[in-house]
Amino acid sequence: MPRTSEPGRTVGSRLLELLFAFTPDAPVLSLAELSRRTGLPHPTARRLVLELVSTGALDRRPDGRFVVGLRLWQLGTLAPLTESLRTMARPFMEDLYTALNQHVQLAIVEGREAVILERMSAPQAVGLVSQVGGRLPLHCSGVGQVLLSHASGSLFDEVLEGPLPKHTTRTVTDPRSLRRALAACRKSGYAIVRGELTDDADSVATRVMDKEGRVVAALSVVFRAGSARPSVVLPSVITSGLGLSRRLGWRPGVPIRTS
Amino acid sequence: MPRTSEPGRTVGSRLLELLFAFTPDAPVLSLAELSRRTGLPHPTARRLVLELVSTGALDRRPDGRFVVGLRLWQLGTLAPLTESLRTMARPFMEDLYTALNQHVQLAIVEGREAVILERMSAPQAVGLVSQVGGRLPLHCSGVGQVLLSHASGSLFDEVLEGPLPKHTTRTVTDPRSLRRALAACRKSGYAIVRGELTDDADSVATRVMDKEGRVVAALSVVFRAGSARPSVVLPSVITSGLGLSRRLGWRPGVPIRTS
Fold first, then answer.
1. Which of B22, B48, B79 sits opposite A78 (nearest CB)?
2. Where do the coiled-coil regions begin and end (chains A, B) (predicted)?
3. Is the predicted pLDDT of residue A84 greater than 70, yes or no?
4. Which domains does chain A have, with CATH numbers?
5. Beta carbons of B78 and A29 less than 8 angstroms apart
């Protein structure tokens, strides 16, 4: 296998490290920043970045810095359950947004985190850090708890046995308490999470099933603590989640499975 | 530069070829298909594909075939002018769709083609092949002509001097006629394209400007030939395009530039 001077890192892995150096917090990077973030020597980083630019995976801006290229965005649209699920979810999310006038989010599992697939909120809305493509922890966000409670046994154990970072004073980090909350969520199909991710935000989330009853996504409403009562928000979130599940082919009576 | 046995193809370029082998027509590929599409020997393809799977760039399905991974979708959302433009365009596109009840598309230039960034249409609508992330030719689609007429001189010449494939009997493939049409579009800001891409579809498209007056996108309505009159559709398309341009910071009086 062609390797570079540093053992264990193939040219391929270096190329991917350069790509994945771009994050929502750092969508524009200079060559120096890319070199620092990947630990690659400047000349190596330069050569590989130019290769990425030549295929359109990255774009070079007029100021010389780099951004993710449109070709990569196009490629990303081919990932299953992204564009199709967004398209199907959007009407349900819009209606929920119209009914409640609160942030609405749709998320799926990626690795050990939840990834926001779609969101809706008033342009002037504040207090929500999420964006499409952004990540949320599984253990202390509404969508995260719904996804985690229906996750495969191995992911479930991995998260519960791993570190459970405390984001606020209210984040549940005791594995036994969390297991109880997740068991309840698995039974009810929804999660109410208050101030566990950020102090001033509450979330009401529910599961979304496909035609085989697999929980493929979670739908949530997020609102400033005190601006709504979860018990008032909950029925509309549940009906929207069931509506989207029906759109995906699920029918009442189809047993709900962990993925 | 580390090269494989075949001259001219670096490991990096092979890796990217494997990624870009996935297309809207072929979003699920087996190892054999990946090997064939890239011309890579089976063992090489296998090794690189597994490397792509280990980073989450590709996912392996239960049937053993491969798809684009969610991590790549996430990375793609970082490309400039994708998620942000989609989010800003959506209300304008929805209103246009509500007013006309016809397909609505938003596209930008990528390489020598237009790429569909967002679209809206009734789920039961037929006759439109486009999808988000899909491509349209610049010379004979509505959005394409708007984008091409405002493109940089080099792209403009490259397209006009290159092959101009004939998609229907009505596709304009004479460079002089096309230049005249594009000059008119550059002046008016809109294009009416009838049956040039598919026999039974007409399109009315207009430009979208950013605050510096650069034409960053094109907005169009596409309808079955004969189901609407372009002159009736045009004013609403233009007002929506101007509305979106204002949302991007453009103001009347800011000169319109080619990109």
1. B22
2. none
3. yes
4. 11-75 (1.10.10.10), 83-247 (3.30.450.40)
5. no
Taking CB atoms and an 8 Å cut-off, how many pairs form between chains A and B? Answer: 157
Q: What's the rounded Cα separation, in Å, for the pair B104 and B168?
A: 22
Q: For B176-223, how does the pLDDT look when each residue is reduced to its tens digit (9 = 90+)? A: 999 999 999 999 999 999 999 999 899 999 999 999 999 999 999 999
pLDDT for position A61: 92
Residue A207's CB is within 10 A of a number of other CB atoms, namely 26
- Rg of chain A taking only CA atoms, in angstroms: 20
For B143-198, the three-class secondary structure string (H helix, E strand, C coil) is HHHHHHHCCCHHHHHHHHHCCCCCCCCCCCCCHHHHHHHHHHHHHHCEEEEECCCC
Exposure b/e, A62-86, CB count within 10 A at least 16 = b = eeeebbbbbbbbbbbbbbbbbbebb
Asked whether B93 and B102 are in contact (CB, 8 A), the reply is: no
Question: Beta strands of chain B (E only): which ranges?
Answer: 28-29, 58-60, 66-68, 103-110, 113-120, 135-137, 190-194, 201-209, 215-224
The rounded distance, in Å, linking the Cα atoms of B103 and B223 is 6
Query: How do residues A136-186 score in pLDDT, each as one tens digit?
Result: 999 999 999 999 999 998 999 999 999 999 999 999 999 999 999 999 999
Q: Helix A142-149 vs helix A153-161: angle between axes, to the nearest 10 degrees?
A: 130
| CA gap A242, A250 in Å, rounded | 8
Question: A257 to chain B nearest CA, in Å?
Answer: 17
- Report the gap between the CA of B196 and the closest CA in chain A (Å): 25
Where residue B56 falls (left for φ over 0; alpha for ψ -120 to 50; beta otherwise) is left
Residues in chain A closer than 8 A to B52 (CB atoms): 12, 16
Tell me the ipTM for this assembly: 0.84
User: Is A19 in contact with A57 (CB distance < 8 Å)?
Assistant: yes
Which pLDDT belongs to residue A1? 38
The CA distance from A248 to B38, in Å, is: 34
Pairwise CB contact (< 8 Å): B80 & A72: no
**Contact (CB<8Å) A82/B73:** yes
* Interior angle at CA A236, CA B88 and CA B99, nearest 5: 40
Give the dihedral sign, CA A133/B96/A98/A238.
negative
Single-letter code of the amino acid located at B40: L
> Which is nearest to A142 in space by CA: A238, A76, A55?
A238
Tokens of A139: 């253990």
Q: Are strands A58-60 and B201-209 parallel, antiparallel or unpaired?
A: unpaired
